[in-house]
Every structure is written in structure tokens, then in C-alpha cells.
Amino acid sequence: MRFTGPLAKMKTSLKDEVKYYLELGDDILFMNDLIGKRIRIEYTDEITCFCGKRVHEVFRMNFCRDCFFTKPEAGDSILRPELSKAHLGVEDRDLEWEKKHQIQPHLVYLANSAGLKVGVTRLAQRPTRWIDQGAIEAIVLAETENRYEAGMIEVALKEHMSDKTPWQRMVKGEDVEIDLREEKEKAIQWVPEEFRSFVSSNDELTQIVYPVQEYPIKAKSINLEKHRGVEDVLVGIRGQYLLFKSGSVLNVRSHEGRHVRLDV
Ligand SMILES: [Zn+2]
Fold first, then answer.
1. What is the pLDDT along the chain (264 residues), one digit of tens a residue?
2. Ligand 1 centre from 264 Cα, in Å?
3. Cα distance from N-terminal residue to C-terminal residue, the chain
4. How many Å lie between the centroid of ligand 1 and the Cα of residue 74?
5. Which Pfam families does this UniProt record tie to the protein (predicted)?
6. What whole-number distance in Å separates Cα of residue 48 and Cα of residue 61?
7. How remote is the CA of residue 231 from the centroid of ligand 1, in Å?
8. Which candidate, 46, 144, 179, 259, has a CA 20 to 30 Å from the CA of 152?
9. Angle CA 118–178–200, to nearest 5
10. What is the Å distance from ligand 1's center to 66 Cα?
11. Strand partners, 122
């Protein structure tokens, strides 16, 4: 069977084990069913930006040139929430869009994805964000009213812990045991006084199990532009990574928009 279309971030649902769905062209593939099977993914040299334009190269976050420099979806506050200004009525690129996106409940969370990390996400993105990062466990540290407040808390926490997922360790399943409730207790003191009222009393732990038959021992990241594709046995999926038997791993999200042919 052959499926074609531009790659998009896999959709997920959190059950006993995460379920992954990849939309490709008119089809939706239930990826868990492909684990244990040999598949082939081939890049066909075309990229569709989220605006619909077809291009041959993209900027950071897979935006075409126009979008990267003009669209609010590519604005500074996307990667750096602390730069959010919509709550002050100050426009970056499109105040209406920014108000909708920034002035809504956000979470500052602690997660264990092959190490302790802090992150920010919209409340509505929970637990999707944690799954996309390959976390095995997460806890809410604070629930804020807007993106700026969450960003400021994260900036303070970054002095004490990472805000990045060590993806090489994550895709090899090199997990460590972390007591997130204990880490949260510790982290509260680093939340700036003015934002302390946002600290959440919810100590519930979200646990996440990924469909992985076996973890690769070595991991090398596939770059579709450079390597053109991959043909190998899919042994698991974690975060937005497809894990292959040989140790090749493909970050689906970072290749969003690339047109591929997928043969099963
Ligand atoms: Zn575009």
C-alpha cells in the first residue's frame, strides 16, 4: 500500500498506551499497527507551508519565508512565552490573534522525559504537549491566566532545570526515575513572588506509556532533505519520533510539510 501527502504532526490519544495517527493525503494511518513492520518513507522534494503555499525550503518551525516574517503563528512569543504582550494590548503581528492565543489559561509543568524539564503549554494542549515531548510523567506546577505569566515562571525555573528534552536519550529509552511531586515542592520556592498565587494545588501525576517494542541502542536522526528517506522496520513511536530497528529515528514534527511517499 502506498500513501502520499505532506507530513503533519501525528495526532495522539492517551490510552493505556499512546495511540498515534498520521494524516497523509486523504488517509489517516493508525501508526501503532505498523510497529513491527518494514516501511519506506521517501521525500519527494516539495514542502507545503501551513498557509498552503508550496515551496522548496522553509524557515524555523517549517514556515515559508512570508509566514515566518509576518504571521502571528511564527511570532517571538511562540517559542518564548515571556515575550507575550497581548495582555497589555500591545501588538506583535496581529493583536486579535495574539489575544486569542495568549490570553487563555496556561500551564507551567514539570515533566520527566529522560530527565527533568520545565515547560509551558496552553491548558487546552494537555496532555498532547507532554506526549509530543516523549515524557513518561508530568505534573502541573502552576496554572496562569495568560501566556506571559507562565513564561515568566518558566524563565525563573530555567535557572534551576532544563527546558529541553534530551532527545537522544529519550529515543533510546534512557529514562531516569524522578519524584515529580518532590521536584514540584522544591520548585515552588523558585517561582517569583508575584506569580506564586498561580501555583497549582493539583498534584496529580499524568503517566504516559509509548508503543515501543524495543529501543534502538544508537540513535541517528534522519534529515529528509539530506537522507531522502528511510526504509526499515518500525520498532516504536515516542514523542513525535518514529523509531527504527537500525537506530534511525525520524522526528515527524520537525519535518512537517514535507511531501512523502509512504509504502507499507
Ligand atoms: Zn506560508
1. 999 999 999 999 998 999 999 999 999 999 999 999 999 999 999 999 999 999 988 998 999 999 999 999 999 999 999 999 999 999 999 999 999 999 999 999 999 999 999 999 999 999 999 999 999 999 999 999 999 999 999 999 999 999 999 999 999 999 999 999 999 999 999 999 999 999 999 999 999 999 999 999 999 999 999 999 999 999 999 999 999 999 999 999 999 999 999 999
2. 30
3. 5
4. 10
5. DUF2797
6. 12
7. 30
8. 179
9. 50
10. 6
11. 106
What pLDDT does residue 149 have?
Answer: 98
| Alpha-carbon dihedral angle through residues 8, 121, 237, 18, given to the nearest 10 degrees | -110
Domain-wise residue ranges, the chain:
2-58+211-263, 75-207
Backbone dihedral region for residue 247 (phi beyond 0: left; psi -120 to 50: alpha; all else: beta): left
Complete DSSP assignment for 111-163:
EESSSEEEEEEEGGGTTHHHHHTT-SEEEEEEEESSHHHHHHHHHHHTTTSBS
200: exposed, middle or buried (C-beta count within 10 Å: 0-12, 13-18, 19+)?
middle
Q: How far is the CA of 244 from the centre of ligand 1 (A)?
A: 31
Q: How far apart are CA 151 and CA 89, in angstroms?
A: 17
Query: Which residue from 220, 221, 136, 205 is spatially nearest to 173, judged by alpha carbons?
Result: 136
The residue with cell 529509552 is 173
Phi–psi pair at 107, nearest 5 degrees: -115, 140
Q: What is the pLDDT of residue 16?
A: 92
- Residue 8: HSE in the Cβ half-sphere, 13 Å Cα cutoff: 17
Say how many Å lie between the CA of residue 263 and the centre of ligand 1: 28
Alpha-carbon distances of 102 from 74, 108, 124, rounded to whole Å = 13, 14, 12
